[in-house]
Amino acid sequence: MNIFQNLSDTFSREAKKYTTLFLPKHRVDIDCDDTPIRAGDAYCRIWLEDMNIAKDVDWFKQRYPVVHAAVRFHYDSKLVTIPYLAAPGQLKDLGSNNLDKVIQDRYPLTPLFPFNQGLVEFQAGLFSIAASDSIGKFIETMGRFAKLLPVPQLSSVLNLAEPVYRGIEDLLDIGERRLELGYQQTFSDADAGSSNFLREGYFAVILAEEHEINSENLCVVNDNLRLGSPGSTKVFVRDSKPFKGYSYMLFRIEKRKQQDWESLTTIKELVAKAQDAVLSGEYEKVKKFILPAIQTEIYRSSDITKADRQQMIGKIKVFLQELGLQGAKVQKRSLHSIMQRTLPPLDAATEAELASLEQLFQQNGQ
Questions:
Q1: Element (H, E) at 255
Q2: CB contact set of 327 (below 8 Å; sequence gap of 6+)
Q3: Which of 42, 12, 39, 63 is CA-nearest to residue 256?
Q4: pTM above the 0.90 mark?
Q5: Of 154, 167, 200, 348, which is least packed with CB atoms within 10 Å of its CB?
Q6: Is 88 helix (H, G, I), strand (E, B) or coil?
Q7: Which domain holds residue 170?
Q8: Is the pLDDT of residue 83 over 60?
């Protein structure tokens, strides 16, 4: 998609001086694990948590504020780009009487995606666009479409990504737009040797030069960027105050060890079908047809980390065995419930079967 490069060129050419920093975890009011993320070990999601625009534009009368973000990562062994647009209708806390107010809403910019390989490239821009009724309606429409993309099972909406991206490109081309604050970064995995590794936590982009602000006073309280007492203690939670006078965006990288299992529709339905078959005594049907279908779907799914594949298959097999042995004593479970169970030690035959499956799908590029 050329727009990713177009925006990169725009940021390089038009971006004003800004400061960016990753807030250390002792400057955040909640605990987080900022250990570098290894490829294949976790699910990630990027949020726009907080934004502020300085009173240097007659917002909504002369110009509309629009936040555009794009995240590019490997999905199904291919690079995909997920666009997002936060339109004025979503930025509802802004009005003529409170233009310096921090926006309280939180916007997921990506789905919860498995970080399985490669790099995660991130762009975000705060644009202002000359106000008109037609432009306002176009912005609202593109904002509604963009909200459809950050869903857990990305494969179900991936075909919408490019049309939405093209619509955003058209919007930025046809309007008299101006880049107020632009930022781009590339995150690597824990083993790449880069200082910009992917990790859980908050990072801020502030329209100011480094000497204008004291970064040691910056902190995050209730997902808002604020000013508080410096130091490694949590005193800032009590005495912090709003960070005003600058345009900025505050983002968060979320890390999870588990996917939203119930969103994996095909796998969920196959597991339910297998349970019904076991309870009906159709063990051979489960063994010959349904379980192999579950295994294949898990290995082919782009919404699952590599580390979860064998765990999922193992937990499902163990539960189906328990269900077959104990019948009515064991109730049917949701896929989410099955995934919460501890996986007992597997027998040698099951371990060999899973190792063979892993090797087979690696050879086929899955």
A1: strand 248-256
A2: 279
A3: 42
A4: no
A5: 348
A6: coil
A7: 2-256
A8: yes
